Amino acid sequence: MLWLLRTMCLIHVFGNIFCLFGPDKNPEVKMNVSEIIEYWGYPSEEYEVVTDDGYILPIDRIRHGKDNADSSAPKTVVFCLHGLFSTAGVWVLNPPDNSLAFILADAGYDVWLGSSRGSTWAKKHVTLNTDSKEYWAFSYDQMIKHDLPATIDFILKKTGQKQIYYIGHSQGTLIALGAFATNQELAEKIKLSILIAPVRTVKHVKGSGRLPAYYTPTAFKLAFGEKEFLPTVVFSKLSKHVCDINLVDVGCAALLGSLNGYAVEQLNLSRVDMYVTHSLAGTSVQILIHYGQAIRSGVFQAYDWGSPSLNMQHYNQTTPPVYNVEDVKVPIAMFTGLKDYLSNPEDVANLVPKISNLIYHKTISDFSHLDFIAGLNARKEVSEEILTIIRKFDGDGKL
Questions:
Q1: pTM
Q2: Catalytic residue among 273, 340, 347, 371
Q3: Cβ neighbour number for residue 53 with a 10 Å cutoff
């Protein structure tokens, strides 16, 4: 257990302090998502979505690509949501020829990039301050119940569309499955859901991602507090003084691999600083406690408050309610990898028969968790497949 604690701390501390190389490496590493989009010559729009529980979530839009700016026809809308520890920047990690958001925009789509509460640029609230425990008292339950509905409704209102395409990575898939299973009104607004490295149950998670399962909620709070998990703001300030030091890329890649899985043949070492910046962002201690519960139980259910009486107060039942993926009616396409530590093949095998409307499933033997959006072969193996799927589905609703 001690080695897992040390590994997780190393990932966050050394990843944030030392893996952000100087401006002579990749200048985008110092930019927010909107700045990255503009850096590559694409139009960027920024909005804020206010959830019904007061969280203010940034959302970035790429209205069109470089060669289709003159088209006045309404464009098909695609919304992308990142995973745990990530930011919306994961969709623009690489140059335009291998970043899904840019590829979609160049193909003629209206691309929106969402942010989950607590991530790097999503730390605003109508009344709460991030220094308070109250701000960080959330898990993925609140993202399912509040964040995703608010964001999708905002996009639909802004674009005038009735349905959108949804693309989620990692936790972004878990949020979608939970939301579409419990909110049928929301599900009807999704034409097709594309799940990349899907997460439902996490019983078989490998590597440092198993850390939360080794602690009781009380012990985890004693170790990491009750607010943000290993706050990134401290490390980002320190990085300004040490990030011009060129350290060994392989060491940072190993830290990422201990969490995501190892597929060295897919890793672009020249972009590791970007991967660290946008794949090791903020989240709450409570959400990691929730994942620890999920690893131990092997069940996709709401947060367990620790006793039948407390659960009764929150849910009007003595046990946390289960998210029944069988209730998801949205058509689903899925991409999975055999070297993925977090979307483990055994958990994926348990998910597949639960999906009633699975229209496409591709397994890539040499992909780990981050490779679907950042790997050297991501364009060929994933992005181009997604374009084909959306084009066919947009035509007649079938594949």
A1: 0.91
A2: 340
A3: 15
Annotated active-site residue in 64, 119, 369, 383? 369
pLDDT score for 234: 41
CA torsion 300→283→113→151, rounded to 10°?
70
State in Å, rounded, how far the first CA of the chain is from the last one: 46
Helix (H) or strand (E) holding 15: helix 2-18
Residue in 339, 373, 383, 333 with CA at minimum distance from that of residue 170: 373
Q: Which two tokens stand for residue 220?
A: 């985890």
Q: Provide the angle, in degrees to the nearest 10, between the axes of the packed helices 148-159 and 171-182.
A: 80
Three-class DSSP category at 354: helix
Give me the catalytic one of 34, 86, 139, 170.
170
Residue 48 pairs with which residues in a beta bridge?
58
Active site residue 304: no
What SS3 class is residue 55? Answer: strand
d(CA 120, CA 125): 14
How far apart, in whole angstroms, are the C-alpha atoms of residue 174 and residue 398?
24
Pairing assessment for the beta strands 110-114 and 77-81 based on DSSP bridges: parallel
Burial status of residue 336 (CB atoms within 10 A of its CB: 0-12, 13-18, 19 or more): buried
Sequence letter at residue 208: S
Q: Indicate the burial class of 158 (C-beta count within 10 angstroms; 0-12, 13-18, 19 or more).
A: middle
β-sheet bridge partners, residue 62: 111
Q: How far is CA 38 from each of CA 46, 58, 94, rounded to the nearest angstrom?
A: 12, 16, 14
249 is catalytic: no
User: In this structure, are residues 194 and 387 in contact, taking their beta carbons and an 8 Å threshold?
Assistant: no
Instruction: Spell out the residues 6+ positions from residue 224 whose beta carbon is closer than 8 angstroms to its own.
Output: 230, 285, 288
Residue 277: the pLDDT is 84
Mark whether 236 is an active-site residue. Answer: no
Between strands 164-169 and 124-125, the pairing is unpaired
Alpha carbons 209 and 4: distance in angstroms, whole number: 8
| Averages of pLDDT over each 10 residues, the chain, 399 residues | 44 46 70 97 98 98 89 87 95 97 97 96 97 98 98 98 97 98 98 98 93 94 91 42 43 66 77 84 94 97 98 98 98 97 96 97 96 95 98 79
